[in-house]
Amino acid sequence: MSKISRDEVAHLAKLARLALTDAELDSFAGQLDAILSHVSQIQTVDVSGVTPTGSPLKDVNVTRPDTVRPSLTQQEALAQAPEAVDGRFAVPRILGEPA
Q: Where is the signal peptide, in residue numbers (predicted)?
């Protein structure tokens, strides 16, 4: 017996703005019921002796340290720009946003 009804699937589809056929509603009801059944089995596992963890992988910082290096000055960076305004690159306005 399915724990999730065809009407519940239709309601979820409506909320998600999905147009589903009758065959899809029946199919998805069975699939969602199987998923909920598996989740139910997982929830019954005794994990009282297991230490909680956010990730099974070790946290390793792979970024390099920040170091000051020579770079372009503001004037050098803007020298080849098609247009600059107030010391910044000027770009076209998008989507009619106000300036």
A: none
Alpha-carbon distance of 17 to 91, in angstroms, equals 37
Q: Are 18 and 10 in contact (CB under 8 A)?
A: no
Please give the model's pTM, rounded to 2 decimal places.
0.47
Cβ–Cβ under 8 Å, residues 68 and 76: no
Q: Is 65 left (phi over 0), alpha (psi -120 to 50) or beta?
A: beta
Q: Please report, as a single letter, which amino acid is at residue 17.
A: R
Which of the following CATH numbers is that of domain 6-43: 1.10.260.40, 1.10.20.60, 3.30.930.10, 2.60.120.330?
A: 1.10.20.60
When the pLDDT of each residue in the chain is averaged and rounded to a whole number, the result is 88
pLDDT of residue 2: 55
